[in-house]
Design goal:
By secondary structure, the protein is an alpha/beta fold. It is about 25% helix and about 35% strand.
């Protein structure tokens, strides 16, 4: 019996599927597959499924966490690409967290909150 795990992905909700897909492309994801109601989005070896499904309470309580090699480079991309103004989303700059990650938060157009960060050492 082979119990090897290959991948795990979340289904991220989208109020406006086209707008959300454009947001994620601008954020730095590539589209590996897309149909009218679902898209496979990836950045490096990390991926998720964007779905044309929206329930306000679900979307606004949904969080994604992504570890990257250089959080400051990702933040610089967010700032330079004007994502906040272009999509009317909220973003807070990187900060060192007590859980030993330097991260920033950005909400997508549907209210899904992303924490994008880099490990910085052991928590105290």
């Amino acid at each position: 019996m082979n119990m090897e795990t290959v991948e795990i992905k979340a289904f991220v909700p989208a109020r406006d599927f086209g707008l959300s897909k454009a947001f994620y492309i601008d954020l730095g994801f590539e589209v590996g597959f897309s149909s009218d109601d679902m898209a496979y989005l990836k950045a490096g070896e990390c991926a998720f499924l964007l779905q044309a499904f929206y329930v306000k309470e679900h979307a606004e309580n949904f969080m994604m966490h992504m570890l990257v090699a250089d959080v400051d480079a990702w933040w610089q991309h967010v700032v330079e690409s004007g994502l906040v103004a272009k999509y009317g989303v909220r973003a807070d700059p990187p900060a060192d967290r007590p859980w030993a990650i330097r991260d920033f938060v950005i909400a997508d157009p549907s209210g899904v909150l992303w924490r994008i960060g880099t490990n910085i050492g052991s928590p105290h």
